């Protein structure tokens, strides 16, 4: 009796929602030994003779009830099984949870193939006697560092929790730490590096996701001092495509410590033992591409699927994490003793000293900077950090007569000044405003509204003559500075680490930071201020200028967990996320209303809108309980598929015309309110 042919079930690399399911293909005899789960393949589509790329998800026997003929796989693109089973299950679950497509998740999880890199990797595996023994050989290397214990926490408690696969909301130690090679990093990096290394020594993979390259540099430096060479794999967006693919293949080779940005939560893992997300409240961990899954949510789902340990940590606890703590899904864990920065609240009043007035800072802030730079207070002389809200010179200008914001005559973008004496220009299109006049009062003079980092550095340089001024922002990236006295003017999130810490930290523009219209503004400000205050040397003051009230009190007294608890209570009363889930639906009004009609009203708390977004689209917001999330996502996804597959009369007589999809669906939209 002839053996039954094997069927390959393939997920196509296509963003079309109507193609987001597994397709069955027959395996030709000449490819029988090459087609395996996880390999890249090229398959035919029965429409206009097209060919599509995809991944083999599984092999199965033919369905006895199917009497037709399956199309054969056309080619195996690569013999490497790049799509692992756990990553496929994660992609499928996340896509279903967010009414998206699994292929959009897989584009984040599996980098583009680099042929030369792949051939070199295969050749190296062939030369090895046993590829799976490579990680063990590295662990037994006589030159590896001595195991490093977690510091500042009760002896062995965190290591035991991770080994047992617990889920932790970890409160870090807010201070700098000096590594054996003299490099200064945040203590949080040392803690996470020690936990990841302990996981790797047990023969399991640890994955650590951080928001940006500054955090990644600190974590990499800590791991270089703790973990053996070859154990750490770095995968981040700043790498070239060959380097990223090389890191991906290294993660496929066996247990590793994989570090990177938001997409690293999808990294392949040989026996995943630990998942870590650092600073989950940072918007850089929110995925800007469909289906817009936050790295924290991806980590939560992956932990549930694979049963590994999970650590979510940050200098400021997010409201989302606080909700999980109160539900008992995450266990709160903190250091043995409290570590609180020395924070001083100061009013934004006119200074009495001429130099302070020229720099537009209060007298108390000016004196703190002067004492730190000169050593008058008895403390060591050293650098001073000045945090400001905006980069540039004068990023915002207004009419000098009526105060209306100055706008570009071409595109209505904001007008600013790039440097002293420069002609004002548009921040969007770059057009020069040579003959600007106010649209309200026709006045032609401009005035400063918000000084940027460049203008602040210039004014502080005049207030402290003879002092070196260092500018650190997006256009002038600086990662580290020395211990010599200097004024370091940095925008939020761009603060460099000073050797030994700053002798004073001045937080300016707090009121401007709080003026942003977003649901997370208070949380963001706390994170910016705390991240800067942690860079201070032990006992050095941090001065928050011009901010008062409960938020300033929570920051000054280190009541950051209390802030998250109170914020969550307020959002429960208002039914704002994360107390409830929401989904935004944006597109043509007819398409949006089709989605709203497809969702059973009994599944929803309410519907906000639709309201007009622009001339061609509207937006509606669906609010629902977490328990209803799967049903709501399924109904929305069905409506999206129907919208994508509908046909209209072909323009110009073209048969088979399909209009471009006119819907954008985003679950758990962070900026919708």
Uncertain ranges: 129-143
Main β sheet profile: 7 strands, parallel
Q: Which structural class fits the helix and strand makeup?
A: alpha/beta
Return the average pLDDT rounded to an integer.
88
Could you walk me through the main structural features you see in this protein, from its secondary elements to its overall organization?
This protein is of the alpha/beta class. The chain has 19 helices and 30 strands. The strands form eight sheets. Strands 10-11-9-12-13-6-14 form a seven-stranded parallel sheet, sandwiched between helices. Strand 18 (415-416) and strand 19 (425-426) form a beta hairpin. The chain is globular and about 90 Å long. The protein starts with 6 loop residues before the first strand and ends in a 6-residue tail after the last strand. Residues 129-143 have low confidence and may be disordered.
